[in-house]
Design brief:
Elements (H helix, E strand, L loop, with lengths): L5 E9 L3 H12 L5 E3 L11 E5 H9 L3 H5 L7 E6 L4 E6 L5 E5 H10 L6 E2 L4 E6 L6 E5 L4 E9 L6 H5 L6 E13 L9 E7 L2 E7 L4 E9 L4 H4 L3 H11 L5 H8 L7 E7 L2 H6 L3 E2 L2 E3 L2 H4 L8 H20 L7 H35 L3 H14 L15
Parallel strand pairs: 1-2, 1-10, 2-7, 4-12, 10-17
Antiparallel strand pairs: 3-6, 4-5, 8-9, 9-10, 11-14, 11-15, 12-13, 13-14, 16-17
Helix pairs in contact: 1-4, 1-11, 2-11, 11-12, 12-13
Bound molecules: flavin-adenine dinucleotide.
Protein name: FAD-binding domain-containing protein
Pfam families: FAD_binding_3
Keywords: Membrane, Monooxygenase, Oxidoreductase, Transmembrane, Transmembrane helix
C-alpha cells in the first residue's frame, strides 16, 4: 500500500447508503464525528421505496428524523395476503403497529441533511484495508491512491463489502429469485385503501403499498432465469417481462405496472448471508466492524433489511459513545474493541433470527416440493408463531 498521502481520521464509515448515513447520524447525535466514504458522486437511492415497520420507526425516532419522515408517507392499516393458488385471502390489521412506505430518496436525503457539512466524501471508493503494523489501526486505501489511517472503521458498504472481506466473512449467496420494483403515480389520486396487499401464485409474488395519496410502490419477486441479465439493462424490457409474468393477477395490480414510471424501475438479483454464517461470523477485527447489508444482507421477504441496518446504527453508536466516555480506564483502541464486541453481541441474535425467518419465508416461495413446504411451514410456526413479532423489536435509546 502506498503511504504517500496518509490522512488521519477518528471514525470512518464506508458507504453512504441507508445504514452508513444512519450510522454517521447516530454517532453525530452522540457527539462523535465521522467521515462517510461513498464511491458514487452523489447521494444514490437505488430501489425506489422501502417499507418501514414499528422497529424501524423506533430507530428513526432515536435518530431524530422520525417525525419529519412520517410527513412523507401515510400509515398503512392492514396487511392483505392473497393466494391465487388456493383462492384464499387473509387480512391482518396492524393494530398498534406502524408501517409506512418511504421513498428511498426521502430517507437518504433526510438522514444526510442532518449531518454536519463535509461529513460525506463522494467519489471515495475503498479498494483495500489493512492494519498498520506499528499502531494496529486500520489503513484504508482509496481508488485515487490516497490512504486514510482511521481509529475506527465501520463497513456499511453493502452486499459486496470490502470491509467484510477483511473480517473474513463468507461471501454472500445468490437467491434464485429476483426483484423488480417501481412506482406508479396517479395524478388525481390512486383511491386505494391504505393496505399492504401481497398476491402470490406459484413462485411469483407481487406486492403494493401506497406511499402517499398519489404514489404507490410495487414489487414483483420471481425466479431468476439467464435472459434476465439482458432484461436488467433495458427499462422497457423490465416492464414488459414483468407484465408477462403477472398475467392473471388482479387487474388493478397489472395496471399499476403498465402505468408505472419507467425511470423508477429496477431489477435486482437478490443476495443473502446465510443465517448460520451470521450466527458464527466474526464481525470485529481490531477496531473494524460492519453494519447493514455488509453484515447481514437478507432477501426482501420480510422487508426488514433496511430497518435492521437502522437498528445497527443506533446500537453501534450507543456502544461506542458509552465505552468512549469512560476516559482513562483502558487504552483507546481497547475501549473501541470492547464497544464493538458489545455491539456485535447485541446484534448477533437479533439479525440471526431475522435472517432465519427471511430465509425460511424465501424458501417457501422458491421450493416446489410439498414435503419441504410443509416442513418450512412447521418451522415457521414453531420458531416464529407470530409472523409480525419481529416488528415489535425495540433497539433502545441512542
Ligand atoms: C427488492 C428489495 C426490496 C427491499 N425492501 C425492503 C423493505 O421494504 N424494507 C426494508 O427495511 N428493507 C428492504 N430491502 C433491504 C434494503 O434495501 C437494504 O437492506 C438496505 O438498502 C441496505 O442498506 P446499506 O446501507 O446496508 O447498503 P447499500 O444500500 O447497498 O449501501 C451501500 C453503500 O456503500 C457504497 N459502497 C459500496 N462499496 C463501496 C466502496 N468500496 N467504497 C465506498 N463506497 C462503497 C455504495 O455505493 C452504497 O451507497 C429490500 C431489498 C431489496 C433488494
Amino acid at each position: 500500500m502506498d503511504l504517500r498521502e496518509e490522512e488521519e481520521k477518528e471514525v470512518v464509515v464506508v458507504g453512504g447508503g441507508i445504514c452508513g448515513l444512519a450510522t454517521a447520524l447516530a454517532l453525530h447525535r452522540r457527539g462523535i464525528s465521522s467521515t462517510v466514504l461513498e464511491r458514487a458522486d452523489s447521494l444514490r437511492a437505488t430501489g425506489v421505496a422501502i417499507g418501514i415497520f414499528t422497529n424501524g420507526w423506533r430507530a428513526l425516532d432515536q435518530l431524530g428524523v422520525g417525525t419529519k419522515l412520517r410527513q412523507t408517507a401515510i400509515p398503512i392499516q392492514a396487511f392483505r395476503d392473497i393466494s391465487l393458488d388456493k383462492g384464499s385471502q387473509r387480512e391482518i390489521p396492524f393494530g398498534k403497529g406502524e408501517l409506512r412506505c418511504l421513498k428511498r430518496s426521502d430517507l437518504i436525503q433526510t438522514l444526510a441533511n442532518d449531518l454536519p457539512l463535509d461529513t460525506i466524501r463522494f467519489r471515495s471508493q475503498l479498494i483495500a484495508v489493512k492494519f498498520d503494523p506499528v499502531t494496529s489501526y486500520p489503513l484504508l486505501q482509496l481508488h485515487d491512491g490516497s490512504v486514510i489511517k482511521a481509529k475506527v472503521v465501520i463497513g456499511c458498504d453493502g452486499v459486496n463489502s470490502i470491509v467484510a472481506e477483511l473480517l473474513r466473512l463468507k461471501p454472500t449467496k445468490l437467491c434464485s429469485t429476483y426483484g423488480v420494483r417501481g412506482f406508479t403515480n396517479y395524478r388525481d389520486g390512486h383511491g386505494l385503501s391504505s393496505e399492504f396487499v401481497r398476491v402470490r401464485r406459484d413462485h411469483l409474488i407481487m406486492g403494493r403499498i401506497p406511499i402517499d395519496d398519489k404514489t404507490v410502490y410495487w414489487f414483483v419477486g420471481r425466479p431468476w432465469n439467464p435472459q434476465d441479465s439482458n432484461v436488467s439493462k433495458d427499462l422497457e424490457l423490465i416492464r414488459q417481462s414483468t407484465l408477462e409474468s403477472v398475467q392473471g393477477f388482479p387487474e388493478e395490480m397489472v395496471g399499476m405496472i403498465q402505468s408505472s414510471e419507467l425511470e423508477s424501475l429496477t431489477l435486482t438479483r437478490l443476495r443473502y448471508r446465510a443465517p448460520w454464517d451470521i450466527l458464527l461470523g466474526s464481525f470485529r477485527k481490531g477496531t473494524v466492524t460492519v453494519a447493514g447489508d455488509a453484515m447481514h444482507v437478507m432477501g426482501p421477504f420480510l422487508g426488514q433489511g433496511g430497518s435492521a441496518g437502522l437498528e445497527d446504527a443506533v446500537v453501534l453508536a450507543r456502544c461506542l459513545a458509552q465505552e468512549l466516555s469512560m476516559v482513562g480506564l483502558m487504552p483507546e483502541a481497547e475501549r473501541v474493541g470492547a464497544a464493538l464486541d458489545r455491539y456485535v453481541k447485541e446484534r448477533r441474535m437479533r439479525v440471526t433470527w431475522l435472517s432465519t425467518q427471511t430465509y425460511l419465508t424465501g424458501m417457501l416461495l422458491e421450493t416446489s416440493s410439498l414435503p419441504m413446504k410443509l416442513l418450512i411451514i412447521v418451522l415457521l410456526i414453531v420458531l416464529f408463531g407470530n409472523s409480525f413479532g419481529h416488528t415489535r423489536y425495540d433497539c433502545g435509546h441512542l
